[in-house]
Write a structure and sequence with these properties.
5-stranded mixed beta sheet; Helix Hairpins; Chitinase A, domain 3; 3 helices; 7 strands; two-stranded parallel ribbon; single chain; alpha/beta
């Protein structure tokens, strides 16, 4: 049995939009570029043809990855969650030893955007936070050493 891929409703929607763009915009554009490059003759020295074929391969590969993720997805809406424990899709505010606060939403691997505060449930911080409660101190093992955080807020938004 294939393992479920947890993702937020927003992440699922973004994947569906990317898939639609790849299938209905990117794919036809690449096919047209391949046809135009073929019309130029000798394919062995045709850089446009080889570039378009490479782009086609990357696009088809990405389509397969997205379709696989969507077919195995387990969509979790944070609005359906509650409680005082950190769960997948919850938004957590943590404070480090210097009382500097960081806010992260725990999301699936396809949704990670650290600059937007979205971290994977399988990242070191994500793994350390899942299942912990408000006020808990967590230890995060990172390549640069162990760091300690206190959970100061848990939201389900």
């Amino acid at each position: 049995m294939l393992e479920k891929v947890p993702m937020t409703a927003n992440g699922h929607l973004k994947l569906e939009q990317e898939l639609k763009n790849l299938k209905h915009v990117q794919r036809p554009t690449i096919i047209k570029a391949i046809e135009e490059a073929r019309a130029h003759g000798d394919l062995s020295e045709n850089a446009e043809y080889h570039a378009a074929k490479e782009q086609q391969g990357m696009t088809e590969s990405r389509i397969q990855v997205i379709e696989g993720s969507i077919s195995r997805s387990e969509v979790i809406d944070p609005k359906d969650l509650s409680g005082n424990k950190v769960l997948f899709a919850s938004t957590v505010t943590i404070a480090d030893e210097d009382n500097v606060e960081f806010t992260y939403q725990i999301v699936g691997v396809d949704e990670v955007d650290v600059s937007a505060g979205k971290i994977s449930h399988s990242s070191p911080i994500g793994r350390a936070l899942i299942g912990r409660s408000l006020g808990d101190e967590v230890e995060v093992k990172t390549p640069s050493g162990d760091t300690y955080y206190e959970i100061v807020k848990i939201d389900f938004i």
